[in-house]
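cron nightly-structures :: item 1 of 1
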Amino acid sequence: MGFNWGTGSPPYEPLKLIALSSIREVSYMPNAKESHYQAYLLLRELDAQIAATMNQIAYGRMNGIEWEKTCKAHRIAFDEWIKFADIRAAEGKDSASESP
């Protein structure tokens, strides 16, 4: 789907959030590879939401329901990333304090 020059519509619609519940609540300590993959997924979603926000700004669509949806999706992706990063940082501090 490309840019529609006649209507000025964006090249894509704001992305739907991926199901993050499967990566946000892990009942066991993920290994490094799983942790890197979780970080990748979260950052990829955040990147997509940043692009959607930039798209809305570029076309001057900074009000209305679509803007609110875009901002909400961006905030959710950001919050999920920060939550993940904070957990990993705390785990790093815990493991560093346990080392002799």
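cron nightly-structures :: done
Residues 49 and 72 are 10 Å apart (CA to CA).
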